[in-house]
Structure formats: C-alpha cells, structure tokens
Amino acid sequence: MRINSLKFSTLYALLIVTVCWYVIHLLLNTPTVPDPLLTFSRLVNLLTDDLLLHLLSSLGRIVVATSIALILGITVGLMIGLSQFFNTYLSPIVFVLFPLPKIAFLPILMLLFGLGNQSKIILVALIIVFQIIITVKDSVMNLKKEYFLSIKTMGATRIELFKHIIFPSILPSLFTALRLSIGTSISVLFFAENYATTFGIGYFIMDSWIRIDYIDMYAGIVAISLLGLGLFLLIQLIEQRYLPWVQLEKGTQQSFLD
C-alpha cells in the first residue's frame, strides 16, 4: 500500500512540475525555456545515444563515494559513540571539519589525487561522511544505558548487542541522513564534473550550455534530477522494506496529527 502511495505522490509531483514548466515556457516564449514535451522527447533519444553513458559515469561515482562514506562514517560514528576515549579525541575534530564547505577542497584534491575519478569520488564522500558520523554517534549516545544492561544480563554477546540494540537504533537516522545527503552530493558532483572530464552528467549539461543547445541542456537537467529522485526513492523503498517498525511509528504519529 505504501509503495503504491509513493508511486502516486511521485507521479503527481512530476505532473505539477511539468505543468508549471509548460506555463513558464508559454509566458516567457524564449528558447532558454524550451517546451517540456520536446525536452522529454529529446531526453529519450539521448538515452539511446551518449547521455546514458554520462549518467552511468555519474552514478558510478556516487555509488562508490557513498559506499566509502558509509563504511568510514559508521565505523567512526560507532567508535565515538561507544568509547569515551574516541569521543574525547575525535569528536572535536569532526565538529571542526563538519561545517567547512567541502567543495572548497576540490583544488587540493585534484592536486593530490589527480584530475580523474579519484578526486571527484573523494569530494562526494567528504560531503556525506561527516553527516553519517554525527548521525551514528548521536543515535548511539542517545540509547539508554538500561538497554545495554538488560541485554547483557541475558548473556548476549557483543555481536548480539550490535544486532539487536545498536544497529536497529542507528538505521532510521542513517537512512534519513542518506536521503538528505543525496541532493547535496549530486550538486557537488555536478560542479566537480566540469573539471578535467569528458564523461558525467555535469559535463554534459555545461557542454550543452556552451554550445547554446538549450533542449539538450534541459534534457541533461531532467536526467540528473531523475537520477537524484531515483536514488531518493530507492533509499525510501529499502527503508520501507527492511525497517517496517519505522513506517509503523510514522503512521501512528500521522494518525495523531489527523
């Protein structure tokens, strides 16, 4: 039921955005805002040409960067949340680095790791990892000590402690952090792909803009928007599938609001 509701709300939102776009196109009557129907038609044609390769290149960078950020972020977040030693010596470093605009490090990363995929992947990972570290750390530290004492008195091993207490507590917040990070990471990747690369949706959009090919440019913008939406919905569906208790809590809260 929830999946069907998600599909309906997504289609409804896309329809409203398309209608608004078409109205703006009619009002402005300028090539810089092309007809959305022509843009969608062009997008379909481009997907059978080279646009799909650009999208896959960007998606590959995002998947690798997100995987790296998850591994590092969960590990460091658990270390800080479960150990007073790491909390004392790592937390100040995390909180100093977290508010810094990571995109400013792109020139440094390109100098250290080259102009290829490595610098772009590391940049996106930097965007996501601090959000994950803080989310995991806060989730663990907000757990009541009684939970740990109760499961330990029943003879639970360390693995069972993580399985039944720690991971279920961090997963809801972790999925929320991922959803919030997706849009930011794609925006940063769009910027990074304008430097020393010939493949990537960011490169495709800016190349179309330079060639004054506005329909291709808008097709690229739609493509990168659909990429972000697809990743967002994928995270949402995984959460609904493997974290059913979270959806139950949300439904209960909604019933109280109604």
From TrEMBL:
Annotated ABC transmembrane type-1 domain residues: 55-239
Q: Which Pfam families match?
A: BPD_transp_1
Q: Name one GO biological process term.
A: transmembrane transport
Q: Provide the topology term for how it sits in the membrane.
A: Multi-pass membrane protein
Localization: Cell membrane
Its domain of life reads: Bacteria
UniProt keyword annotations, A-Z: Cell membrane, Membrane, Transmembrane, Transmembrane helix, Transport
Q: Which GO terms describe its cellular component?
A: plasma membrane
Question: Does this UniProt record's set of keywords contain Nucleotide-binding?
Answer: no
Q: Any transmembrane segments, and where?
A: 12-31, 51-81, 93-115, 121-140, 161-182, 188-206, 218-238
Q: What is its main location?
A: membrane
Q: Which family does it belong to?
A: Belongs to the binding-protein-dependent transport system permease family.
Q: Which PANTHER family match?
A: ABC TRANSPORTER PERMEASE PROTEIN MJ0413-RELATED, ALKANE SULFONATE ABC TRANSPORTER-RELATED, MEMBRANE SUBUNIT
State the protein's name.
NitT/TauT family transport system permease protein
Taxonomy-wise, where does this protein's organism fall, top ranks first? Answer: Bacteria, Bacillati, Bacillota, Bacilli, Bacillales
